[in-house]
Amino acid sequence: MFLNRYVLALVITSLASLVSFMVVLTRLNPFTDEQTALPLFFMSLFFLLSSVLSLVGYCLRVFFYRHELFLNHFNVSLRQGIILSLGIVLLTGLQTMRTLTWWNGLLVLAITFLVEIYFVARE
Question: Which of 25, 28, 74 is nearest to 45 (CA)?
């Protein structure tokens, strides 16, 4: 019962973040108003990615691991969605600053992997 509320809240959050991301993409010009457009772009991208990746991760976990508790699936997928979206937003920010190289990308991927390994080892 409570899990359905969590999933419904995540679906509503993903729809709201999709709307905000589309508004930022269509209404704001980063060349004229860089102080407002770029932070709003990255925040809306983070919320959109974290909610969508969490939903996808939850659906995959429920499909593959049916014998475990669903609340554990939700917590893990939410954590992984947030960590992955932070990595993607960081890579996008590096690309925006034109400092993204292959070794920077590998370093960001390694850091996100190590953060996830830390949480898995702690459990």
Answer: 25
